[in-house]
Write a structure and sequence with these properties.
The structure is a homodimer of 241-residue chains. With 241 residues, chain A is an alpha/beta fold. Chain A contains 10 helices and 7 strands. In chain A, helix 1 runs parallel beside helix 7 and helix 5 crosses helix 7.
């Protein structure tokens, strides 16, 4: 998403700590372009660094603007995040839908996040083409700035990942081929024949089906099947130390 | 999702503030069942309240356990959240896939979250059937406890929303509660101690981890676990006919 990575715009943030947390949340999902509108305590803010937890690059590159309009002047698609309903006539999207929308859009996108306590003002929301609302517990809604940022960043990164899948391409090792399982089962049955497990004989057939089902269910890897074979051998030929 | 809402298990959390933030993150998406394993600073912790930002009900209802095994003893599906790869043979799911998986599963689910700095230990991951990994920026991964909680809670709440239609009428049988697997594993280990399987001693620890991982992977039912116990008993006390 690098060439179409959206800008995260913090409008009138109050605490430097929260700016740092937002930077950390962004960089966790590969986003680094932050713009700050009229920060209450000025900029740079020494409280931001520690909570950024290493995402200093985001803070260093952050640009400061006097107004929201200036901050998004070069952007083609503006999204405003808000929790409250204000008789919106604009389209309201959940974060996942917003991410899809941004992915499909042509031109630079900006996402506005309001001040900690009050959220975005009507004037800021007016600038936006669309609204992003995280659907939260109606009886408790208490999403802070960094949480709103991380949820949006997370959804955006999922869009991106759909093409690449960097982390998750590594799935667990492949299950052993069926023939290995057949051999494991044969080994187990033979070992259990010797212990008298299949007595009485009239129940043996059903028991064998159960055992085979249990062994085929897990999708064990070849290594795991080998381990089981070792376990069986150890029961067959104990060598107590 | 109320009747199938998962339990959020914080394993050895360090700071009360982070427990409070996790509670807030959970309740934002309608989840309230928190369990805490061996919290570093004891429980209740006066630092948790302020950061919970009103989610006190979650903290008040939180249960404390000495070990992870005890905390999940009544759960049928255990998921471990982890960022690091450890040569997993278990399925690794992104949060969205994990949420789908939980939604489709029959029986109580638990999600394990590790301590702030170190993440879950190998022993905790062993307990889990599946792994949840949030795909984050490889060059910066710095997801804190509350952020991991909120992303998982958020994905779970999306499932709930989407899930207007009733769940599948025929679910596969429910996996045995974790405590049954613990007993099966203890039985197996004891039986193998007698056969000399864990010789030489310097490899025993690694072998035990492998075995436990193999036993937690399949999601066996109570019946299947009973069958395994019978198999073990038969090896321990053979009665050849």
């Amino acid at each position: 998403m690098s060439n179409r990575a959206p800008v995260f715009v913090l409008v009138k943030p109050q605490l430097g700590e929260n700016i740092g947390k937002a930077a950390r949340a962004m960089l966790n999902f590969g986003f680094s372009e932050m713009r700050i509108v009229d920060p209450r305590d000025g900029w740079p803010n020494p409280s931001a660094g520690p909570t950024a937890a290493g995402a200093d690059i985001v803070l260093e590159k952050a640009e400061v603007f006097a107004t929201t309009a200036e901050a998004v002047a070069d952007c083609s698609h503006i999204y405003a995040t808000t929790v409250r309903k204000r008789g919106m006539t604009k389209e309201v999207l959940a974060p996942a839908a917003a991410a899809q929308d941004m992915q499909a859009s042509n031109g630079k996108c900006a996402i506005l996040f309001g001040p900690e306590r009050s959220g975005l003002e009507v004037m800021d929301v007016e600038l936006a083409r669309k609204i992003i609302t995280v659907p939260i517990n109606q009886e408790f809604g208490s999403l802070n700035l960094a949480q709103a940022v991380i949820l949006v960043a997370y959804e955006l990164s999922k869009m991106d990942e759909r093409n690449v899948q960097p982390t998750l391409e590594k799935q667990p090792s492949q299950p052993a081929p069926q023939i290995e399982l057949d051999r494991l089962y044969a080994h187990m049955e033979a070992a259990l024949e010797k212990t008298g497990y299949f007595y009485p004989p009239d129940r043996a057939a059903a028991t064998k089906i159960t055992l085979r089902n249990m062994l085929t269910k897990p999708g064990w890897t070849e290594e795991e099947v080998k381990t089981w074979r070792g376990v069986l051998s150890s029961f067959e030929n104990p060598h107590p130390k």
